[in-house]
Amino acid sequence: MSAARARARRYGLRVVFADLGDWAACELLAEYDARNREIRLNRRVAGSLRGPELRRFVDSAVAHELYHHREAIGEVRRLEKRSEREAAADAFALTVVALQ
Q: Which end of the chain is more exposed for a tag (fewer CB within 10 A), N or C?
């Protein structure tokens, strides 16, 4: 099990694949749902990938959404701007995936 998925499990989060709908010009890769304690990965994106590319997508997306979970539970300070939060989540994901 990857470091990202192991962390999600330790936080008590489920990781599931779901159809995340259409988002116009951009494609939503994943989302964090605090109420249901789950990370949803875009089934459409995952379905287009195989092997190492699929594993990288899953691990990176889970790690990114873990950052948002950590914000939600107060483990890290929630940054004011959405763009800053997303950049911080991306940086966190790179760190987690690099540890694998």
A: N
